[in-house]
Specification:
alpha/beta; 11-stranded mixed beta sheet; 5-stranded mixed beta sheet; 13 helices; 33 strands; 19% helix; 20% strand
Length: 668
């Protein structure tokens, strides 16, 4: 039987870096082969002659290869980073990345056109091209990309719309861009935008979002027309002067606007031509700026009336206190006040209870039930709000229960043959308030676009009490079960850092909306063998019974002291809970599992722990094997004062910087 043809036979290359079977060793070995797949160099050297390739592992580095002129199949590697630097000529057309790759850098080499055929991984979050003589931004960039850095290139601005919406960190400096006017650019998901050293003259058709945008950097620009809609103007105008945040493990983080050697003086005639109003930008900071920046603000015409679902309500307190998400916790979340906590059961009013009547006139529990009133007017429930998300009920096939809570259970099933998770209210919990809560949850989930939050597939129902929420299925269970079932040897910090990155990116996304998760713990982090970890809230709503208060299965051990004491929720409460998750990742136990009663040696009950959390006399344990930067991050997250805790956006940058540091020793 003849051997399979070599994949590299048509390449104009003679020394191709590959990993796996062609190296005739372990599947993770790296070697150099020729265009006939014959082994040229085994166990490649650590220092390249013409260039260096750095494959980064969490616990070390493997670098270099002599005089290679192409990269081939690296899919057998377990790398999180790949840096390709200082090559005069390198063919990347046939590159296949490892599934674990998160960070990819090409620097100081020649890649005139990025191939549209590159097969990026789902986990790739950071993609950097620096001085690679590249003109295009391909259409096939990863849909989950977080960081797009594209510096000092002969950029064709016609390809700017190809930047994925998911990108939050956008660095386009040094590309000789003179105008951003020819394409509509939706940058409402961008948190950091760097456009300095571009000699910009005109900007229009670019949209930003207030609360999302954290920094905007522009230099060497002389702009005569800067056209913004009202919302985008608000996003820029809300920024303060540039500042750098430095806190122990933080690298320099930029927030605010920076306008070095730049002028923005709006041409009044150009503004009149688009029916705009010349408006001063950053007028509150004129004394600091020592100059005036004027832009053209255009108010859009009234939008046509369309029948869209009512947007999820927002909280009108502070910018830090946003819409509160509880994916399965549809009922009233347990609120604990003062140092003493009175345990009580919630009594439901019978006139608010409706049950779905199955065939034969019996409810799921076997008792006679009242059929749920399907008249929307009578019940106050408007199912038309879900029309956009409605699925054919026959296409949704439940199979087995995988999680349960006090108000709902979750089933594994399929939608048109694709695995899904199906959430349905318990037959005893189909009152008007519960059904409305599920409707609100579905609408909220539909508004999410983050790759780090479990996605809504849709919903289906025959009558309101039958409402089912169909969600993306994650095949590796929740983080808590993984921590229970796996040892620290099996569940390494390499993998845990992936989980940390996903959680902070999810929180940064939610908090920007603004949404507070409010029930963050390891049970609400789902894992998958292919996809990144994602936030959810399956099967966690617990009634405030004595049992849940004493066996450590409630949410109290993850709650911030201000929640336990005065029920004050803000995004900082989520950050405290994230610190508790970091302790779980370290010890594989729930928070405070090692704390015992000195009188009898038994574990403390939740009520005792809560009192100590409020008093500030207890902190979770961290081991000596925990990476120092993760421990520093955790300790800041669990600060007693909410003002002392970092934001999710800060931590997202910390983790990104750490990945870069691991990737190439801060060489970027």
């Amino acid at each position: 039987m003849s051997a399979a043809p070599c994949l590299y036979g048509s390449m104009n290359a003679s020394r191709i870096v590959v990993a796996g079977p062609l190296c005739k060793g372990n599947v993770s070995d790296v070697c150099v082969v020729d265009s006939k797949c014959a082994l040229v160099t085994k166990n490649i050297s650590s220092v390249g002659i013409e260039g260096t390739i750095t494959m980064t592992y969490v616990n070390g580095y493997k670098t270099g290869w002599d005089s290679v002129d192409a990269i081939g199949d690296l899919s057998n590697l377990s790398t999180i980073g790949l840096s390709v630097v200082n090559f005069t000529k390198l063919n990347i057309d046939a590159i296949t990345f490892s599934r674990t790759l998160q960070y990819l850098l090409f620097d100081n080499m020649s890649i005139p056109v990025i191939p549209e055929t590159l097969n990026y991984t789902d986990r790739l979050g950071h993609l950097l091209f620096i001085e690679t003589n590249t003109s295009n931004i391909p259409k096939t960039l990863p849909v989950n990309l977080f960081d797009w850095t594209f510096l000092y290139q002969p950029l064709n601005t016609d390809t700017l719309p190809n930047i994925p919406y998911s990108v939050q960190y956008l660095d386009l400096h040094g590309n000789e861009i003179t105008n951003l006017t020819y394409h509509k650019l939706d940058w409402t998901n961008k948190t950091h935008v760097f456009l300095h050293k571009n000699k910009l003259q005109e900007i229009s058709n670019v949209k930003f979002k207030k609360g999302m945008l954290k920094s905007f950097v522009l230099s060497n620009a002389n702009i005569s027309h800067f056209e913004l809609d009202l919302n985008s103007f608000g996003a820029l105008d809300s920024l303060g002067p540039f500042q750098i945040l430095n806190q122990s493990f933080f690298d320099a983080q930029e927030y605010g606007f920076r306008m070095n050697i730049s002028n923005i003086t709006q041409d009044a005639q150009k503004c009149d031509a688009v029916k705009g109003v010349v408006t001063e930008l950053w007028s509150l900071h004129a004394a600091i700026n020592k100059k005036t920046y004027s832009v053209c603000v255009v108010t859009p015409p009234p939008a046509a009336t369309t029948l869209l679902p009512t947007p999820a309500p927002t909280v009108a307190s502070s910018s830090n206190t946003g819409l509160i998400v509880g994916v399965v916790a549809i009922g009233v979340v347990i609120l604990v006040a003062a140092l003493c906590f009175f345990i009580r059961r919630r009594n439901r009013k019978s006139d608010a209870e409706f049950e779905y009547q199955r065939e034969g006139g019996k409810s799921a529990g076997g008792t006679t039930s009242t059929r749920f009133i399907t008249d929307n007017t009578a019940t106050g429930i408007d199912m038309s709000e879900l029309t956009l998300y409605r699925l054919n009920q026959q296409d949704v096939v439940p199979q087995k229960k995988i999680a349960s809570g006090a108000y709902a259970h979750v089933l594994y099933g399929t939608y048109k043959g694709t695995p899904v998770a199906i959430k349905k209210l318990l037959s005893s919990r189909v009152g008007v308030s519960e059904v409305q809560g599920l409707i609100d949850e579905i609408k909220l989930l539909a508004s999410f676009t983050s790759p780090y939050v479990v996605k809504l597939v849709g919903c289906c129902w025959d009558q309101p009490s039958d409402l089912e929420c169909v969600l993306e299925y994650m095949n590796a269970g929740d983080l808590r079960d993984n921590l229970i079932a796996r040892t620290a040897v099996d569940f390494t910090w390499n993998e845990k850092i992936h989980v940390i990155a996903a959680i902070v990116d999810a929180l940064a996304y939610l908090h920007s909306m603004p949404v507070i998760h409010r029930d963050l713990k390891s049970r609400n982090v789902l894992l998958d063998s292919v996809k990144s970890a994602k936030l959810t809230d399956f099967g966690v709503s617990k009634e405030d019974t004595q049992e849940t208060m004493t066996v450590g299965v409630g949410t109290y051990r993850w709650m911030a002291p201000e929640i336990l004491q005065v029920n004050h929720y803000s995004v900082a409460a989520d950050m405290f809970s994230f610190g508790m998750i970091l302790s779980e990742l370290d010890t594989h136990n729930i928070p405070y599992a090692d704390v015992t009663n000195p009188k009898n040696g038994k574990p403390l009950v939740d009520t005792a722990i809560m009192s100590m959390v409020i008093a500030g006399t207890i902190k979770p344990t961290f081991s000596h094997t925990m990476p120092e930067w993760v421990r520093d991050m955790a300790q800041q997250c669990i600060a007693t004062d909410p003002e002392d805790r970092p934001t999710a956006m800060m931590l997202s940058n910390v983790v990104r910087k750490q990945i870069k540091r691991e990737a190439h020793q801060l060489g970027v």
